[in-house]
TrEMBL record:
Family: Belongs to the zinc-containing alcohol dehydrogenase family.
PROSITE patterns: ADH_ZINC
Transferase keyword on record: no
CC per GO annotation: cytosol
Cofactor dependency: Zn(2+)
Organism: Pelagihabitans pacificus
SUPFAM superfamilies, per the entry: GroES-like, NAD(P)-binding Rossmann-fold domains
Record bears the keyword Coiled coil: no
Protein name from the UniProt record: NAD(P)-dependent alcohol dehydrogenase
Residue stretches making up the Enoyl reductase (ER) domain: 12-365
């Protein structure tokens, strides 16, 4: 057992409070991580608000980065002292996992949202006077220590500041992977990104890397649109002041080859569909509240050959894709450090407020 300080959401819509508890030793396929820093993601905020499922009280956090402190008896590809990034959980045994599509694991919800510890099913946190749920994304990294499965623990280079790397485990890889893995656009094609938070801005950087010639950023926040231009957007549309579909159709003549919807807003997703050229593909990434339905005219879908695909975690094979993004960052081609702002762990509620108010794109909590 190891003592750890964790940030807890006691119930829906409550602020984070801190507790000191004990965290279990790793089982055969688990690793204990001394957390250095953790990204704060909209998924954490949605669970905190009760818009996505979980069990309360719960320790959230799913963009952890740290140093391996202990390894389970069956762990062979990780060692004490390794620098690691923690990502999402998957079972490894279902058909999607066996075929390499781990982000569509049939156990995705219980392993990532419902606190099911993959290794054994028992509690991660011990010695507290209430049932404290953990195993969020198989890490619960809002703590000074985290317990992860070897499947979602990615060894990374020690040449890059470890504090920066946690967001690669979810938000950054989601945006970049949606472009690089799911859409895989040919050089010279056009793409529109709707919503330029951390996911959308990562998609813009990825689109620049793969050679898209027209990269349209759509948002209502002027400062984020300015950053989008700095990171690779060729055209900016403030959809609060302009009719985005009309502007994009006029810009391209026929619409865009690809679109990414990263806002989670129904009206925005429907607009993104309408800006597609014939045979265009819309990737839906933004996660709205449960029960949200998007409406597209069936005949428009059929007669134009347009496609709509949902994307989880950027279709990433994490132990391959995350190191690739780090290599691009080292080459100066994927400057995701432009998105982040650091906060002390004790200031987690301040970071949440700043994120909700749009003052910061990607907060990182330093332990």
């Amino acid at each position: 057992m190891t003592k750890t300080k964790v940030a807890v959401v006691a119930s829906k819509e409550k602020e984070f409070t801190f507790k000191e508890v004990e965290i279990d030793d790793p089982k055969a396929h688990e690793v204990l991580i001394k957390v250095v820093a953790t990204g704060l993601c909209h998924t954490d905020l949605s669970v905190k608000a009760g818009k996505l499922p979980s069990n309360y009280p719960v320790v959230l956090g799913h963009e952890g980065a740290g140093v391996v402190e202990k390894v389970g008896s069956h762990v062979t590809d990780l060692a004490v002292g390794d620098h690691v990034v923690l990502s999402f959980g998957s079972c490894g045994g279902c058909r999607p996992c066996r075929e390499g599509d781990t982000s569509y694991c049939v156990q995705l919800e219980p392993l990532n949202f419902m606190n099911k510890r993959q290794a054994s099913g028992d509690a991660i946190f011990k010695g507290n006077d209430e049932k404290l749920n953990g195993a969020f994304f198989q890490q619960s990294s809002f703590g000074t220590y985290a317990l992860a499965h070897e499947r979602n623990t990615v060894r990374v280079t020690k040449e890059v500041d470890l504090r920066l790397l946690g967001p690669l485990g979810c938000g950054i890889q989601t945006g970049a992977g949606t472009v690089m893995n799911t859409l895989n656009p040919r050089a010279g094609t056009s793409i529109a990104i709707f919503g330029v938070g951390s996911v959308g801005l990562s998609a813009i950087m990825a689109a620049k890397n793969v050679g898209c010639s027209t990269i349209v950023a759509v948002d209502i926040n002027p400062s984020r649109l300015e950053l989008a231009e700095k990171l690779g957007a060729t055209h900016l549309v403030n959809s609060e002041k302009e009719d985005a579909p009309k502007v994009i159709k006029e810009l391209t003549g026929v619409g865009v080859d690809y679109a990414v919807e990263a806002s989670g807003i129904k009206a925005v997703a429907e607009s993104a569909f309408h800006v597609l050229a014939n045979r265009g593909i819309l990737a839906v990434v933004g996660a709205p509240e449960g029960g949200t339905e998007y409406a597209f005219d069936a005949n428009e879908l059929i007669n134009t050959g347009k496609k709509v695909v949902g994307v989880v975690e950027g279709d990433s094979t994490v132990k391959i894709f995350i190191p690739r993004l780090i290599a691009l960052y080292q080459q100066g081609r994927f400057p995701f450090d432009e998105l982040v702002q650091y906060y002390p762990f004790d200031n987690i509620n301040e970071a949440v407020a700043d994120m909700e108010e749009g003052k910061v794109i990607k907060p990182i909590l330093e332990m």
